[in-house]
Design goal:
The complex is a heterodimer of chains A (614) and B (517).
Chain A: H1 16-31, E1 37-42, H2 43-52, H3 55-60, E2 63-69, E3 80-85, H4 89-104, E4 110-115, H5 121-129, E5 136-140, E6 146-149, E7 152-154, H6 159-166, H7 173-187, E8 192-196, H8 198-213, E9 227-232, H9 237-241, H10 247-255, E10 261-264, H11 266-269, E11 275-278, H12 284-289, H13 294-313, H14 320-357, H15 360-372, H16 376-388, H17 396-407, H18 412-421, H19 426-435, H20 445-458, H21 469-487, H22 516-527, H23 534-539, E12 546-550, H24 558-561, E13 563-569, H25 574-586, E14 591-596, H26 602-608
Helix pairs in contact in A: 4-5, 7-8, 13-14, 15-16, 16-17, 16-18
Chain B: E1 9-11, H1 31-39, E2 44-46, H2 57-73, H3 93-102, H4 108-116, H5 151-154, H6 180-191, H7 202-215, H8 218-231, H9 234-242, H10 245-258, H11 261-271, H12 274-283, H13 291-301, H14 308-337, H15 341-345, H16 357-367, H17 379-385, H18 390-403, H19 407-414, E3 415-417, E4 423-425, H20 431-440, H21 445-452, H22 458-467, H23 471-481, H24 484-491, H25 499-508
Antiparallel strand pairs in B: 1-2, 3-4
Classes of the chains: A alpha/beta (614), B mainly alpha (517).
Organism (chain B): Mandrillus leucophaeus
Main location (chain B): cytoplasm
Domain Vps16 C-terminal (chain B): 202-301
Chain lengths: 614, 517
């Protein structure tokens, strides 16, 4: 199949070191509170924690009971309470309520708050306001890089997207810089740096400052990874909003892969229990189909099933000795394969069932039409109808409206359909979508200029300030078409697009569209600069935020120059990962490594934009 | 597998209009192109529609794999991870937390059990802690002021000690490269905030803010803003932030997070951002649980300076909730009284409060379909009040009545009388959609057939009839098209010896028909 083991591929750095590091640091922090203690863990940290430690490790370090941080009074009777949380105001209020309740009851305990990946000043302010500053000790657990796979590091910070791209809060930029700093400490400096986007530029500058302060520390080390590419999610919202059709992406869209694992329900496991399954390169079956277009997956699975059957059948004419050999040497492997195979077959079945119900076929067709920019009217009315038919309404159709707005224009009638559907609160969501530049509405020419002039009056600190949302989003809308043309994102069809033997990255969207983000990365790496891409950069509103930085001295081995770390600020999708894995293989034995603030998809992007109660 | 899930790989055969575009294929630019594209033999389609007359690779593979199960399953335990009722692997942290939540007074014994069941190994490939691997070479050991001192003893015999896991730089060392002066200030800032107190002149404060912004670290920017908020009057603070957009956005986000609604509204008022002001006020309703209080709150939102379009929605939101409160009270009463058949047969799954309009319409079509227009809960009343478009109304009513299998209502929905009193069937959404919705609600073939027959486009009709096994429609259509070949092909799909087969045979042998092929 598409990605067999490649003997010519450069070897990937050993990222398991990051897990060990995180675990050791956590242990160290737990030991700061000697003796038995109960540990309260924030829900969002549970899965990442599961990836690097387990209950017995915690028990070894005298953690007695485990609780989830939720808005309920704690039943713990322990004398020492330890909280492992994200730096969020609501967590501080929760802790304050516990501590203050204890105080009222005249009870004294020891409290420790471990912030991951770092603490924020605003959190300490709340502790102070609540009168418990000093009663609790605070620590930081700089666990910001979780290796989800051999080539994928996640910061597990989905809130990065909303905080930065909607609210304009730069609180996580330092976290990113710290993470990059850690990587360069462990794996050597990066000789070639590229980036696009305002956030990318800031993160890069902050990171450089860190390195300069500690100069000497990384000097002299040979680089293991030759290139680094930083990219803001808002450079390319369109790709993230497309329905995914490579297997891993489809599994994510259908079942939601959370922290590298997925819950397969009874409909997949064909038993009465659910199964939590890790999806990574260790799953031999998954590893061979993850990057494949869904239409190739069945062929592969059925071939596998036949092979497996043949393997088992061999045992039929065996004598005792051969049978013994078979049982001791092969059976376990076969059983493992059998288990994986039946899981993925079950998953495919379930995906088919769900997608058939959703008229996936028609939606994909509509999506492709939008990307290519033809049949817009038909597509628009199809989307309207699709929304109309949803009872109860679903999040995904909101994604279609956004895609529509980014690639062309949302008509009033579509808005009207949405209004009846998304409950009254949609108003807030839509205002958020507009602010983040995800939703743009028809504005006559003069309105645009009016907005523009009003905006430019407000913006005085031009160097730091991106022109405010209203303007940039209006500008962005009209540009997708032009960018698409410039970068040749819609491949010309001459004959069949053979999805079995993909010829370009467009295969991840059935040959209809090359992901913009991946195309930019490809182009820049090819030129080793932004030269000749000025027009594209201008259309992306990133003229001030596209940069390159190469070190002169060439210590980098040719091996390391074949490794590229791509940093997605605001999240990346599995489709983008698949596309770049493909590119790496095609373009001269390279290998991409991914660092993302979180793995995302269309549904997650939309959810991040909705308003819920505080 | 009950719904007959099938995939197929097709070579070159043109499919009906509805299903023809394969997911694996690009859309083409013109109709002419498209025809050519579909009729040329090199394209292979892959589709997400069911079609159960094709051999399914997936089905086959599944059978193959399942047939092995008997052999494999006997001692599978070591392979499969142990999973608790909730699907979490036993021994994982998430699982363990649920255990604590489940029986918070879990006995000692229980915990021991938990320990012994700890089978994480099958789950993740955790490297064993290797004490030989020292990372200390990468990190300088640092001590943080205060709390860390006494702890080295406690750690003396754990392997963690040598790792000096102080990876994140202590914030105290925040250095700004500009000058010693600024380094000092940030050092102070994070060690003891009160040292910021020495920035007393406005100029110093603003310079502090600008340095923070130029560092790009949002945490630092917020820290400075908190200080400025405390030491400047809000008018001055707002005035200065108006020309500092980055800092302004940080302040807005901070105020949202800590829930200082009052200051936030003041800020929007100062900035003359009336729409944001209105939205921000309106947002508060999300935090009001009590429906009556929420309704009253929404009333205060009407008339706020929203955009023209949003204003109408706010009014609608208020009206809708008002309605829902009345309907909810009424229906809860009816349901608990147990006298009304519909509520006995189909107990309500959830309250209708705070549901979107379309859900409310569905609800009212489900429970209150026949009510007179004058009542608040009647569908027609909802349609009028909220100006629900015809299409939307029909779709929703159809879904609700089909779910109840009230075929007469469905029939009435599409029957119109003209001025001469003739009845005519008409569907604003197109009968192909009607058929699909009916099928989704498991309508019997007789009903489906009736509506399939009303589909105007012959290709679509044939296609739907085949898909939903409306044999008579297929046969009659083939007859009308004089398409002998297709009829012949269809013969293989009906049951042997069935009435359909007989009917086909009769037609095929009929000399009355002049077949076109």
């Amino acid at each position: 199949m598409a990605f067999p083991h490649r003997p010519d591929a450069p070897e990937l750095p050993d990222f398991s070191m990051l897990k060990r590091l995180a675990r050791d640091q956590l242990i160290y922090l737990l030991e700061q509170l000697p003796g038995k203690k109960d540990l309260f863990i924030e829900a969002d940290l549970m899965s990442p924690l599961d990836r690097i430690a387990n209950v017995s490790i915690l028990k070894q370090h005298e953690v007695d009971k485990l609780y989830k941080v939720e808005n309920k009074p704690a039943l713990s009777s322990s004398e020492q309470l330890c909280f492992l949380v994200r730096p969020r105001i609501k967590n501080m209020r929760y802790i304050a309520s516990l501590v203050n309740a204890d105080k009222l009851a005249g009870r004294t305990r020891k409290y420790k708050v471990i912030f991951s990946p770092q603490k924020f000043y605003a959190c300490e302010m709340v502790l102070e306001e609540e009168g418990i500053y000093g009663d609790v000790s605070c620590d930081e657990w700089a666990f910001s890089l979780l290796p989800l796979d051999v080539d994928l590091l996640s910061m597990e910070l989905p809130e990065f997207f909303r905080d930065y791209f909607l609210e304009g809060d730069q609180r996580w930029i330092n976290t990113v810089a710290q993470a990059l700093h850690l990587l360069s400490t462990l794996y050597g400096p990066f000789p070639n740096c590229y980036g696009i986007g305002r956030c990318a530029k800031m993160a890069y500058e902050l990171w450089r400052n860190l390195e300069e302060e500690e100069d000497g520390e990384t000097k002299g080390r040979r680089p293991e990874i030759g290139h680094i590419f930083l990219l803001d999610r808002d450079v390319d919202f369109v790709t993230a909003l497309c329905s995914q059709v490579v297997y891993e992406g489809l599994v994510d869209d259908t079942f939601r892969i959370k922290c590298g694992s997925v819950d397969f329900g009874p409909e997949v496991t064909s038993s009465d229990k659910s199964l939590k399954v890790l999806l990574n390169a260790d799953d031999k079956v998954f590893n061979e189909i993850r990057n494949e277009h869904f239409s190739n997956v069945f062929g592969f699975l059925s071939q596998k099933a036949r092979n497996l059957q043949a393997q088992y059948d061999r045992r039929r004419g065996m004598d005792i000795k051969q049978m013994k050999n078979f049982v001791s040497q092969e059976l376990k492997g076969l059983k493992q394969e059998h288990r994986l195979l039946s899981l993925h077959i079950g998953a495919c079945e379930s995906i088919m069932k769900k997608k058939t119900k959703q008229d996936f076929q028609e939606l994909i067709k509509t999506e492709h039409a939008l990307l290519e920019g033809f049949n817009i009217r038909e597509s628009t009315s199809y989307i309207e109808e699709h929304i109309d038919r949803q009872v109860p309404p679903s999040h995904c159709s909101r994604g279609y409206i956004v895609l529509l707005s980014l690639t062309s224009v949302v008509p009033d009638s579509a808005r009207c359909s949405l209004d009846t559907h998304y409950g009254p609160e949609h108003l807030l969501t839509f205002s958020n979508l507009r602010r983040a530049g995800l939703l743009t509405e028809q504005a006559p020419g003069d309105t645009l200029t009016a907005v523009e002039s009003k905006v430019s009056k407000l913006v005085t600190d031009k160097a730091a300030g991106k022109i405010t949302d209203a303007f940039s989003s209006l500008a962005k809308r009209s540009n997708f078409r032009a960018i698409s043309k410039k970068l040749n994102l819609i491949p010309r069809v001459d004959g069949e697009y053979d999805l079995k033997v993909p010829r370009d990255m467009a295969y991840v969207f059935s040959g209809a569209y090359v992901p913009l983000s991946c195309r930019i990365i490809e182009q820049v790496l090819e030129r080793r600069s932004w030269q000749g891409l000025d027009e594209v950069v201008r259309l992306l509103n990133c003229s001030d935020f596209a940069f390159t930085d190469m070190t002169k001295e060439d210590k980098a081995s040719s091996e390391s120059l074949r490794l590229i770390l791509v940093v997605f600020l605001g999240g990346c999708t599995f489709s983008e990962i698949s596309a770049l894995r493909f590119l790496g293989r095609e373009k001269g034995k390279r290998e991409f490594i991914f660092l993302t603030t979180a793995v995302t998809n269309s549904a997650r992007l939309m959810e991040a934009m909705s308003e819920v109660k505080a | 597998m009950s719904c007959g899930l099938i995939l197929f790989f097709q070579s070159g055969r043109p499919l009906g209009a509805g299903v023809r575009l394969g997911m694996g294929l690009r859309m083409n630019r013109t109709k002419g192109d498209e025809e050519e594209y579909w009729n040329s033999s090199k394209f292979k389609a892959f589709t997400f529609d069911d079609e159960d007359d094709e051999l399914s690779q997936l089905k086959e593979s599944k059978r193959a794999v399942n047939s092995l199960r008997d052999f494999v399953d006997d001692d599978d335990d070591d392979d499969l991870e142990r999973v608790s009722w909730s699907g979490e692997p036993v021994g994982s942290i998430s699982w363990s937390i649920k255990e604590t939540a489940g029986n918070s007074s879990s006995s000692h014994e229980g915990r021991e059990q938990l320990k012994s069941r700890n089978s994480f190994s099958s789950y993740a490939q955790l490297p064993k802690p290797t004490s030989t691997y020292s990372l200390s070479s990468f990190f300088r050991g640092r001590t943080r002021p205060g709390s860390f001192q006494s702890l080295s003893d406690a750690l003396s015999d754990t392997p963690a000690k040598s790792y000096a896991p102080e990876l994140g730089r202590p914030k105290g060392e925040y250095r700004v490269s500009y000058s010693i002066h600024w380094f000092d200030s940030f050092h102070m800032l994070f060690c003891q905030v009160c040292s910021l107190e020495r920035f007393r002149s406005l100029q110093d404060k603003l310079q502090l803010l600008e340095e923070a912004v130029s560092m790009h670290d949002g945490n630092v920017i917020t820290a400075v803003l908190i200080f400025l908020k405390r030491t400047l009057s809000k008018e001055i603070l707002f005035r200065e932030l108006e020309v500092r957009q980055v800092a302004l956005r940080h302040l807005i986000h901070f105020l949202k997070e800590i829930g200082d609604q009052k200051l936030l509204l003041d800020l929007f008022r100062f900035l003359d951002r009336t729409e944001e002001l209105a939205l921000s006020h309106y947002r508060e309703h999300l935090n009001i649980q009590d429906p009556d209080k929420r309704k009253e709150f929404l009333k205060t939102c009407i008339g706020l300076p929203f955009s023209a379009e949003d204003s109408a929605h706010i009014q609608d939101h208020y009206t809708l909730l008002e309605r829902q409160i009345i309907i909810e009270a009424n229906d809860r009463h009816l349901e608990s009284a147990g006298q009304t058949e519909i509520f006995r047969k189909h107990p309500r799954k959830a309250s209708i409060l705070n549901m979107p309009l379309v859900t409310t319409l569905f609800y009212s079509c489900f429970y209150h379909y026949t009510e007179a227009e004058g009542t608040f809960s009647s569908p027609v009343n909802l349609k009028k009040t909220f100006k629900i478009p015809d299409k939307q109304y029909v779709l929703t009513a159809l879904a609700a009545r089909a779910k109840l299998r009230a075929w007469n209502d469905v029939d009435a929905l599409f029957t119109t009388k003209n001025w001469l009193g003739y009845t005519k069937k008409r569907a604003p959404i197109g009968f192909h959609r009607v058929v699909e919705i009916l099928h989704k609600n498991n309508a019997p073939v007789q009903i489906l057939q009736e509506y399939v027959n009303l589909v105007e486009d012959v290709d679509t009709k044939l296609n739907l009839a085949t898909k939903f096994k409306c044999h008579d429609v297929v046969i009659d259509t083939c007859r009308d098209l004089k398409d002998r070949q297709q009829l012949l092909a269809y013969r293989s799909k009906v049951d042997k010896g069935s009435a359909e087969e007989e009917k086909i045979d009769a037609l095929l042998s009929s000399s009355q028909i002049r077949w076109k092929n």
